[in-house]
Task: structure prediction
Amino acid sequence: MKDQFNREIDYMRISITDKCNLRCRYCMPEGVELVPMSHLLTFEEIVQVCTEAASLGIRKIKVTGGEPLVRRGAPALIGMLREIPGIGSVTLTTNGVLLKEHLSALMENGLKSVNVSLDTMDRGLYERITGKDAFPQVMEGIEAAVNAGLQVKINTVLLESVNENEWEKILEYARNHPVDIRFIEIMPIGAGRDFTGVSNEALLEKIRQQYPRIQEDLSVHGNGPARYYSIPGFTGSVGFISAMHGKFCTRCNRIRMSAQGEIKPCLCYGTSIDLRQALRSQPGAATEKEEKTGGRQFLRMLLQKAIYEKPQAHCFEHDDEITEDKKMISIGG
Ligand code: SAM
Ligand code: SF4
Result:
């Protein structure tokens, strides 16, 4: 369906856990409080929400987290979501640590495309950024996914004085591998506020100096606002997601749901609509049937409201207007 600014909202990112097996410094530093398991939506509840969302025009779902693969049964959930009428694609964003282990289950459940987050090609720096010596495992996961024929995108966040020069080696990986490398500008959310990101505009200039024949690629690569380029001689492409310096709100097509069932229309604002409450209590329903129908209608109405009232634009450039105080880990990146 369209929101109040006439944008077609057809993409939902759902976080299925706020737990993670890494501790990326800009996302989930040590000591973050986790939500109790009983507050997480069950898979059945997630499917219920996504079924109503599909009836409102959501066509693409991204499963994310926290780290989605730490939640038991995540591959089966992907299969359940794919079966919802109207849903055309279900994809996954992961840190890749458990990708190889779960690859066959993911593929059996119909996964076709995966985004893997990777901020460096240096094992030591990887450990310093993520708190875990898991670089070899992640690379094995990426290789296994590529070899199995999955469409793989690598998501990289560059931070000043941390990994700002890592783009060269990460990009180089796309020379001989059919992967899209996407550089994501850090947003001032949660722990991300303590870091300074690298502007994609400046980065593209640096890449252009090294690869003068780089060219914009207008073909569709995915669900979102990335701008893609191809470099002659490279098997994969390079993409830029420039939330900060290339504000793409007029083209925004998404809503998010946290692991606890809060719908978030925009990352910048604390506003959310709580579906868990609606899923778990139906006061006034006399029979089970009434409870089910009433529940579905209420859920749909809340989703409609969340989509319709989606804000016109984020406000990350005005620090004092940002009302979101949650960490990326609990919003679902
Ligand atoms: N654990 C999975 C992963 O790392 O891909 C999925 C969740 S993680 C929150 C999703 C993405 O959000 C990662 O690529 C991460 O780099 C990115 N991210 C985390 N905090 C961010 C921030 N403040 N601004 C922009 N991207 C951020
Ligand atoms: Fe975990 Fe992903 Fe956040 Fe890193 S970016 S701490 S892997 S949720």
About this structure: The pocket of iron/sulfur cluster (ligand 2) is lined by residues 20, 22-24, 27-28, 65-67, 95, 117, 329 (CB under 6 Å). The mean pLDDT is 90. The first strand starts at residue 11 and ends at 15. The chain has one domain: 11-331.
